[in-house]
Amino acid sequence: MRNFLKMLAVATLLACTVFVQGQSGTPAKAESAKPDVRFSADMLDKDIDPCNDFYAYACSKWAAKNPVPADRPGWGRFDELQQRGEYIVRDILEKAAAGGASRGVSEQKIGDYYASCMDESAVEKAGAQPLQADFESIVKLKSKEDLPKEIVRLHREGNDVLFGFDSGSDFKNASQIIAEVDQGGLGLPDRDYYFKDDPKSDDLRKKYVEHVAKMFVLLGDDQAKAAAEAQVVMDIETGLAKGALDQTSRRDPKKIYHKLTDKELAALSPAFNWTVYFAGVGAPQFDSLNVVEPDFIKNMQQVIDAHSLDEWKTYLRWHTVHAGVALLPTAFVNENFDFFSKTMRGTKELRPRWKRCVAYTNNDLGDLVGQIYVQQTFGAEGKERTLAMVAALEKSLGDDIKNVPWMGADTKTQALVKLQAITNRIGYTDKWRDYSALQIVRGDALGNSQRSNQHDMQRRLNKIGKPLDKRDWPYPPMTVNASYNPLENNITFPAGILQPPFYDNQADDAMNFGGIGAVIGHELTHGFDDQGSQFDAEANLRDWWTANDKKQFEERTGCVKDQYASFVAVDDLKLNGKLTLGENTADNGGMRIAYMAMLNTFAGKEPAPVDGLSAEQRFFLGWANVWCQNRTDAYARMLVNLDPHSPGKNRVNGTVSNMPEFKEAYHCAATAPMVNQNACRVW
Ligand SMILES: [Zn+2]
């Protein structure tokens, strides 16, 4: 199962999980297919002063009623909505799985994929056999010179060993797609996990090595051999991690764009035969590419040299079982769950099998499922009303850019050109992915997953050397998320998020502007945050700011950085102000322009209060309402390291405390906790 959102290119609204969660056969708890996701005034805790803690006022009752479910690391309003989608998709998949000879080609694929995944007894019976061909191929390696060929095979199955290879926009000529070699090959989520020296990180590494050893034991190795093999894996991964960039650095486009010729790449790591790799992997011919991080490739050469062929075989064998674990028997799934979900994220129980299979089918055949999903759920009206809202938000951002006091006329002109050029993608793609060459075989769960990965890798590699096709969406339409892509200068709002509590046909304008309106604003302002502002209207990495305006901008974003760096996420762990800067700037800017758009819509006519709450008060509740959430401590800790988004509480209280409009709406004292004495404002 490949994760379909790349960290670098797409700024999403919320964290996408990047690991396959563990598995097995815990029975599904009774849960509502249709939780009430609408806002109601009953949700408010009237004992809490909104000026003291607005998040608690809006969310504490929800939080008390919605503890983290045993099979999750966290639970929030997004998850409620996602869960509704899961039931809809399950229905689609069960029908497709049961269908007879009259099924269409799409139903056959999604139905058989899902049915194979659900067939636990067949998966148990097969054991690790589906990986046997992979293991045999690894065993047969005769020298390290054979590595490129073997890595081709594994990469094509979706197993990102040693490094990553993909297609992507040329940062400086963004209408063209080029090849991209990136860091990769780690089992832990990020390079920092290998080097942090606090006791918790130390402990986690120890448990990781134990986990790797246990997986080798499950493959049939004895304890002593497995322990030694696990140590080899840890050594190789630590070696690779040394050359890798951390998450914060990867937000800086200049640090992740190095266009080199294929010969220059070869010179960085002569021990690895790139010609063999590129010829085998299925990429069209090219003579230059983005070597995302040259230091990683240089370091990789040393790691290859430092380890014996047998050690490399151990490393490849580990990653093969790790990549396929989701569709292996329960013993593997449980062991994987134990480390990656229980230890790392604090999840108590495995998700029910059907939910995992829905997720895998969505991941591997998203556009086939998505076509049926939008037919069932998404009407033309939803698209029209969303587009009208986007237009209102774009107008506000334009007005805001024209009026901000700190930006000079030249930069403003360029900013407005960039705003005009943003493409809006709402609901679902105009060009569904073509799966006709992909074979889905009933009864071959793991093979289906591997073939899906091969098929998708080929799809992505076929883009190399071609112009960017803006109809390619990064995720399927049932996704509950939204994004701005600085390399395409577009926003994407899939059908999955265009529902209550984000957008509610039955709600008043104020709630909708505070919900989906602020989210649209959030994505639009990403085009102008610390990362997006480095790309121009054509999505090229080009500095279009005057030096003075840039300085003014950085002073203002510096305020946001320091403000959020003072927030505690869990225990004594504070947020990383730099990692979360883009998202926090987008939250603050998004709220600002959504508020402006709401007032424009009112055109001077103040709507009557609803439930005793003014429109202005309800606007802020619309925002708070989408961020109510609970997380385990372990998960909260993990996200501080990895997630560029702040936790819900900080997204709410951070933004409202910067807006004098909030102070007015709730009649807060100037000294109230929700009134930031040094309010930050960029947009
Ligand atoms: Zn964002």
The fraction of residues in strands falls at 5-15%
Distance between the termini: 39 Å
- Helix content class: 40-55%
Low-confidence stretches: 1-10, 15-30
Radius of gyration: 25 Å
Strand order of the largest sheet: 1-8-9-7
Structural class by SSE content: alpha+beta
Major sheet summary line: 4 strands, mixed
Q: How many runs of DSSP E, i.e. beta strands?
A: 12
User: What would you call the shape?
Assistant: globular
**Number of separate helices:** 24
Q: On the 0-100 scale, what is the average pLDDT?
A: 93
Q: List cofactors, ions and other ligands.
A: zinc ion
What structural keywords apply?
683 residues; alpha+beta; four-stranded mixed beta sheet; 12 strands; globular; disordered N terminus; binds zinc ion
Report on this structure.
The strands form four sheets. Strands 1-8-9-7 form a four-stranded mixed sheet, covered by helices on one side. Strands 3-4-6-5 form a four-stranded mixed sheet. It has a two-stranded antiparallel ribbon with strand order 2-12. The protein has 24 helices and twelve strands. The chain starts with 10 loop residues before the first strand and ends in an 18-residue tail after the last helix. The longest helix is centred in the middle third of the chain and has 25 residues, at 353-377. The protein has 683 residues and is an alpha+beta fold. Strand 8 and strand 9 form a beta hairpin. It binds zinc ion. Zinc ion binds next to strand 1, helix 18 and helix 20. Zinc ion binds at residues 11-13, 522, 526, 583, 586.
